[in-house]
Each structure stands twice: as C-alpha cells, then as structure tokens.
Amino acid sequence: MNARTARSVLLTLAAIVAAPVAAAPALKAGVFDPPRDAPQFSLQSSRGGKLELGSYRGKVVILGFGFTWCTDVCPVTLATLTQARRKLGAAADDVQIIYVTVDPERDDPARMKEYLHAFDPTFIGGTGGAAELAAVRKDYGIVAEKHVKGSSYSVSHSSYTYLIDRRGQLRALMPYGRGADDYVHDLQILLAE
Amino acid sequence: MRSPLRTVLLACGAAGVAVLAWAGLAPIETRTGADREELFEIPRGTWARRMSGEDLGILPDEIRLTLGIRDILVLRNLDEVPQIFGPTLMMPGQSFRLPFEQAAEYQFACTAHASGQMRVIVYPYPATPWARIMWRARKL
C-alpha cells in the first residue's frame, strides 16, 4: 500500500468514526428495550368479522383495554386519542386504534361499535369469550378485576395504552392521563420510522 | 456573664438557622442522562425464590420522583422468566424506561403489590427555598 492509498484509507476511517450518529428521538411514553413482537390475537371485531392484530402490520397501532360502561378512565383515554388523531391530520390514516374489552358479558360487537363510533368511527373494538380475552390480557400483562355493586358491576383495569410500531413490535406504554400532544409526538416518531 | 445553658441554646439555634439557610438557599443542580433514572431491577432467580415461598418486595408501593433531578423510572427484568413488574409485563432481559414531565400522582394497577396499586408521585423541581428545604428533608 503506497502512502496515498494509506492516507485515503485513514481519511475514510476517520470520516466513519467522526460521522455524526443521529440519536433516536426519545418517546414521551415508557419504552421497552429491547422491544418484543406484540402478541397476536384474533377476536370479534366491532366492525363484524375477525379482528386480527397482525392484519394492521404497516400501521402504528394504539392498543387499549377497557369497557363501554367505564365511567372514568376509558372516556378520557378515548377522547384523548380522538384529539390526537385529529391533530395528526392525514398521517392519522396510518394509525389504528384498537380497544379490547375487559367486560365481554356486556360488550358485544354492536355495543362496542356504537360506543366507539361516538368518539371516532375509525376506532375498532375487540371482544370475544371470557377465556380468550383473559388470554390476551395475560399476554399483555393487563389487570382487570370485576367489582359487584348491588345489581350492577364495574371493572377496574389497567389504564395505559400500548404503542405498536409498523413492524408489529410492542414499543412503548403510554400511562393514563397523558395528553393528546404526547400521543402526537410519539406517533409522529413511530410513523416516520 | 452568660449561663452555659444559654450559650448552648444560642449555639444550637445558630446551627439550626445555618442548616435551614443552607437547605433553602444552596442550589440543587438539575441532572442529565442516566443520573435522572430511578432504577429497580428484578434480580436473576426471583421467580425461583418466590416459588420456594420467599416474600420478595422489589418495588415499593410508592415511588417518589422529582422533575429535573430524578424523573425517569427504569424497570429491568434480569430474571429468566417474564414478570409482571410495575404496570406491565416484562420479558427476561427487557427494560422499561418511563420519563415523567408533569408533577402529579400516578396510579398503576400492579399485581405485584398487595394493594394492587403502585403509586408514583412526581414532585416539581424545587425552585423556591421552602421547596428546597422540603426536598432535602425528604432525602433524609
């Protein structure tokens, strides 16, 4: 190797080492490292037919768990997600909100469709048998507990949502109470990947 | 001539004022990067120890964070099996890093706690003398 070639090699190596490494922008949500594949499920869709998580590969999915009779957590979360989708504008076409019930006794597909459409007609609900929903909750570490109150009942449940990227990886967890701007911030990052 | 008791009381009073003045006026530096993380780890072998009947409390019922100083909750599962840790399910070797930007009280459902809840209290950055005194008192 002559002196000129050696110099070129050294310069190339120096350029590689000195190249600015673009740090990945930080999400506002809690981030899993390393991310894992989002557990697949197949439930009854509020739109009729099957709700297969895998069929939304290529979109960013926000996955939440709740029930239509919820009086505090779910309306707030769904209203926040509605606002976030509006703020995203056209980019929201690549975002799918999926809400899986923790109350299959009362949440049939028709009830979920009616409830979710009041927030945003693009939201999709998932319901099914108690055992299959329990299996989905277990895969995602979701807590749900029934509390009987007289002739009725309520269900306390995990209140956060999951952010699943276009490749179907469970990337982050957004705690309950975060605003629409936090969702927009994180969705823009995930959509840009 | 001063009595010895009076001298001691005056000295104690002066020392107390000095400590309060320091606690209220000495600045608290904001931190960056990993210094802001409050880390909790599930050690390797936790599942096996729980199965053998040991009562292992890893996460406290209440976690206190302060904006600008320690405001990132980091959970790490070093065990060989998936674990419900804090609000979520974590795979072996996986970590979960949750930054906070708003001072508030956050409740997370958590089956690892007897109460079923984990509470994270996030305090604002102690910008006033009184807030600095309270922040330092909480660290004692």
Structure description:
The complex is a heterodimer of chains A (193) and B (140). Chain A is an alpha+beta fold. Chain A is built from 5 helices and 10 strands. In chain A, the strands form 2 sheets. An 8-stranded mixed sheet of chain A has the order 1-10-9-4-5-6-2-3, sandwiched between helices. In chain A, helix 2 packs across helix 5 (180-192). Chain B has one domain. In chain B, the strands form 3 sheets. Chain B has a 3-stranded mixed sheet with strand order 1-3-6, with no helix packed on it. Chain B has a 3-stranded mixed sheet with strand order 2-8-7, with no helix packed on it. The longest helix of chain B has 22 residues, at 4-25. Chain A binds chain B through residues 26, 28-34, 36, 139-141, 143, 145, 156-160, 173, 175-177, and chain B through 73, 84, 87-91, 93-99, 101, 104, 106-111, 116.
Characterize the overall form of chain B: elongated
Number of helices of chain A: 5
* Low-confidence blocks of residues of chain B: none
Rg of chain B: 21 Å
Overall shape of chain A: it is globular
**Looking at the chains present, what oligomeric state does this protein adopt?**
heterodimer
- Under CATH, the homologous superfamily of chain A reads Glutaredoxin
Largest sheet of chain B: 3 strands, mixed
Number of strands of chain A: 10
Could you give the distance between the termini of chain B? 38 Å
